[in-house]
Each structure stands twice: as C-alpha cells, then as structure tokens.
Amino acid sequence: MPDEAVKKEVEILSKTELDRTIKRLASQVLEKVPNIDSLLLIGIPTRGIYLSKLLAKYLEELSGKSVENGCLDPTFHRDDLSRVGTRIGQATDLPSSVDNREVVLIDDVIYTGRTIKAALEALHLWGRAKRVTLVAMVDRGHREVPIQPDFCGRVVPTSKNETIDLRLREVDGEEGVFLCKKTINH
Prior knowledge:
Elements: E1 4-13, H1 15-32, E2 39-43, H2 47-63, E3 68-71, H3 81-84, E4 102-110, H4 114-124, E5 131-139, E6 151-155, E7 162-167, H5 169-172, E8 176-185
Parallel strand pairs: 2-3, 2-4, 4-5, 5-6
Antiparallel strand pairs: 1-8, 7-8
Helix pairs in contact: 1-2
C-alpha cells in the first residue's frame, strides 16, 4: 500500500475564542489610532478580507463611527511566485485614497512575511499612507523578511510541516483556528 498523507488537526481557537480575539484586536487598533476618521482597513485575500469586515463592525460598535474597509491583492507583487504558485487574482477594491490615511493591513496568518512585503509594495501604487500597521490573527513564525504584526491574535510556533487554518463561516462554513499537521502513514 502506498504512503498516504494524513492531516491531523488541533483546535487552537474555538468560534467563541476567535470572536473574543477579533473584538480584542479591534479595541487595540482603536487605542492606537488617534483619529478613527482617518482609519482605512485593508484585507488581504482571502480570509483577511472577511477579518477586515469583522474588525470594521466591532470598531463601529466601539467608536460609534463607521470604518472604511477594502481589499488589496498582492499576488503579482510577490517575489516567490515560482515557489507558491499563482492563483486567480482578486480585484483590489479600495473605497478611497490611501493618501495620509492610517492604513491597517489585515491577514489571517503571518508566516514568511512575503505576503505582507508584497502587499506593502502594492499599497504604494495606490498612494502614500500616513502610517501602515498590520493585524495578523495568527503569527506562526519562520519569517524570511523582517516584518512583524503590530496587532496579533495569537502566536503559535509551528514546524514547517504544520499549517494554521483560520476558518470563517462566510468562506468555510465553520469558525475557528486550527493547527494542522501532515503525517505520512507507511
């Protein structure tokens, strides 16, 4: 019988814990941004877009003001496309100019840092932000470029054969954060 890869997973954050973590991140962003009217949330596909919308909802609940959010696909700005492969790009959709805005990039998992590096390069094509900060739901380590999240839901050290899956109802039909490990059965 040939070797088969089996994926084992462990729940890191339940649906309730995930929701609480997103609310905490919203509160931290609100504390750091002096003028919420200048705030622009930008999600990175795929799950960063949905996280951006959730953060916007919670920021509005906390501040009483609506927060603009959009998405930015950095796929074609990556320096490692031969390694990660290409996918159909999602159209960048920004509600307004980034010039002189407090931009918060939002991604589900930060790993090598190359996605964020590409996002920063793509963002500069849309204008000059006053400041750019980063929200990552999970930091799993293994950075290849010197980029760190300003706001992080959870740090989960992983090995290279493990992955972190953030699952959101709108995309996956369930919610939570899971550590997944591939094992080989002989």
